[in-house]
Write a structure and sequence with these properties.
It is built from two helices and three strands. With about 70 residues, the chain is of the alpha+beta class. It has one domain: Alpha-Beta Plaits (2-Layer Sandwich). The protein has a three-stranded antiparallel sheet with strand order 1-3-2. It is globular.
Length: about 70
């Protein structure tokens, strides 16, 4: 079984689900895990998909905005 690693930290459930959907669209399975902060969630991907997931999130999100830049 491949170990899961954190690819992003979402501030709330809505943001976490949006990131999870972006990754799913790119063919990457992602899981959500609670973070110590109130509503924050970790977005987790298989370790062997980490580089691809980072690329997907970098390309599909605008660093100046939380919304996808599609």
């Amino acid at each position: 079984m491949t170990q899961m690693v954190q690819v992003a930290l979402a501030g709330d459930v809505t943001e976490a689900e949006e990131l999870q959907e972006l990754l799913k669209t790119a063919g990457i399975d992602a899981a959500l895990e609670p973070e110590d902060e109130a509503d924050a969630l970790k977005v987790m991907v298989p370790e062997d998909a980490l580089d691809e997931a980072l690329d997907v999130l970098e390309v599909l999100t605008d660093p100046d905005d939380d919304e996808p830049a599609l």
